[in-house]
Amino acid sequence: MKKILNKKEEKDILDSYNRGEWEPIKNPKREIKKLQRYARNTLQKDKRIK
Question: What's the rounded Cα separation, in Å, for the pair 19 and 21?
Fold first, then answer.
């Protein structure tokens, strides 16, 4: 799914980047795995506890 940004949103993002509000992730592979685990757990069906 591709989202098309309008010019105002693109300008806001670029301005934010130029102000130094963005920080690099120290370990991107670990962060990706963590977010994938969160997504997988979110989509799993809840287990009933008796």
Answer: 6
Number of other residues whose CB lies within 10 A of the CB of residue 41: 8
* Residue extents of the structural domains in the chain: 7-43
Give pLDDT tens digits for 3-48.
Answer: 666 889 999 999 999 999 999 999 999 999 999 999 888 877 666 6
SS (H, E, C) 1-33: CCCCCCHHHHHHHHHHHHCCCCCCCCCHHHHHH
Distance CA 34, CA 26 (A): 13
What is the residue type of 22? W
* Ramachandran class of 45: left when φ > 0, alpha when ψ lies in -120 to 50, beta otherwise: beta
